[in-house]
Write the structure tokens for this entry.
Amino acid sequence: MSDSLIYPERGMQWGIFLFMVVSAALAVIGMPLYIFSHGISRFDLLLFFFYVAATGLSVTMGYHRLFAHVSYKVPSFVKFLFLFFGAGAFEQSALKWASQHRSHHLYPDTKRDPYSMKQGFWHAHIGWLIFWKQPKVYENVKDLQKNKIIMNQHQYYGVWALVSGILVPWTLGIMAGHGWSTFFTAVCFRIFFVQQATFCINSLCHWIGKATYDPEVNAKDHGLVALVTLGEGYHSFHHRFPGDYRNGIRWYHWDPSKWLISLMGFFKMAKDLTRIPPERILRARLHAEKSLARKESRSASRPSPVLEQAFT
């Protein structure tokens, strides 16, 4: 297989660029101007928050923890809901998303990592989508290719995204007499907000916080970042134990995806929830703390460059 089919190649992705620029402009400029002149209704706010939750959690619970990591199992109708609302987030098909994310875990911070933090914060955040042509190799998602619903969403992704992300919420707004306000809030600003929250997982979660479970990887744990990323902020744990359906393992960790998956398990809507044994988690944490302590000790014992120069 040639390198061009394995590694990302530089190349402007004009379609993605124009979509993001237009949607961002409508969100951060168009929406405030419309609200200032026309106001906003309770219906607009309710539909906005519903669609933020539906699309955002379909990415974290569906695209991420179900399809990319198979950390639990659900019936077909739940998969359909994740695929439907996940498409409305405009973050590519579930097959493509899961393939790229598996590459991110398998080849972290290498040329085969689509959003490597070693290429800079903005590359990891959004640049990898706009300025790079990503390889369309799906050898790492053969399990997902066996599912007809996933493949249908992949093959007709544009239709799924248009219907779920734009037509359905906008139609509901028109029926309620709030067509344009719904367009700016539940469509444009919601798409912008959910996308930026997801992008923060690739950037902020590899930049801010503590490498609680694996200091060799730049993934970090940070409670405040978890608020922005809908529970994905405990990223050191996730990179150390990607098969666990949880990101925040403490009961008080903000992880709505974990809570909803647990609730689905209670009502028999999800099964085979993967939980890493506590002793393995403890060993990983102790090993990480020892590694960090050794690094700090070596750093403290190393002479200061200023002192070295003074005595030479």
User: Anything to note?
Assistant: The chain has a mean pLDDT of 93. The longest helix spans residues 42-68. The beta strands are 9-10, 132-133. The chain has one domain: 3-299.
